[in-house]
Amino acid sequence: MAQHFKDTSSCYICLTYMANPVSLKCGFICCLKCVNSLPRGPGGQGVMCLTCSEVSQKSDIRPKSQLARLVSEVRVLEPQLRAILRMNPRMRRFQVDVTLDVDTANNHLYISEDRRQVRCVYEEQKRRVCPERFSASFCVLGSPRLTSGRHYWEVDVGTSTEWNLGVCKESVPRHEEVDLSSERGFWTMSCREKERFLASTRPLTVLMVSPGLNRVGVFLDLEMGTISFYHVGDGTHIFTFPPISVAEPLRPFFAPGTPAKDGGSFMTLCPGFSPSVASAAGQGYGALSTAGTDAPCVPTAMDTSPSDADPAP
Ligand SMILES: [Zn+2]
Ligand SMILES: [Zn+2]
């Protein structure tokens, strides 16, 4: 987000924060000093816009003083914004050991024996019939169910190009196509084509994510009612949903991309520190949540292709 503010406050020509911004006749904005590096108009008169080629005479060039003030504010705030939006290392004290709840897994999802890996497969998995299983969408829930307090977990999405993960209400419908929408009880982040990221708000929020997102941190704060996503690799904040108030348990949610779209890549739950493991290792993680015993699943049907209009798999 800090980078986004910086980019939109930058000059198209010198690529740094705009200094004394001016506008040309067509509305193109750049630094005053950069006007000199624009190509000359026909006969050496005026300067030509880099994007639309319209020629502006000297009298057409206007200072943008309000923009100048805004740019200087952004410039001053950038370091603070970067600091505020970084992952707080203390979040890891709330790390929970999330595993996949096989009884909720759609039968086109392969779940590893340790219940930490899931991917979508063509072959139907043979599992017992249970009402909590997603039958229409390729989803699986994680355990434990979360009812209070703060919880943090990390999901390795590896080289996967399509995935959906986050949190959902325990009561979400299991036998109809999942509509990944916060209005329907899904607070998720989705990846499409490796580099487009969406949050399941209505309307969808397009997310700006720094490059190289291989591991996503999810922080659920049920005291504040917030659900946040982090880029674990560089520690940047990705998105926080507006506060929610939910009177029922929430579950971690996962929906890998279909094999056609994603080549069957795994989503992997990173092991959390359980209190016993932490104390055995002599680590001071005193405030850990206990790990649950069963896990939730995620969405989608094989033939449903997620789109911009609907991030549901
Ligand atoms: Zn410039
Ligand atoms: Zn122009």
From TrEMBL:
Cellular component annotations (GO), alphabetically ordered: cytoplasm
PROSITE patterns, per the entry: B302_SPRY (PS50188)
Residues of the B30.2/SPRY domain: 78-276
Pfam annotation, one family: SPRY
Keywords attached to this entry: Metal-binding, Zinc, Zinc-finger
SUPFAM superfamilies per UniProt: Concanavalin A-like lectins/glucanases, RING/U-box
Single GO MF annotation: zinc ion binding
Protein name: Ret finger protein-like 4A
Gene source species: Phyllostomus discolor (pale spear-nosed bat)
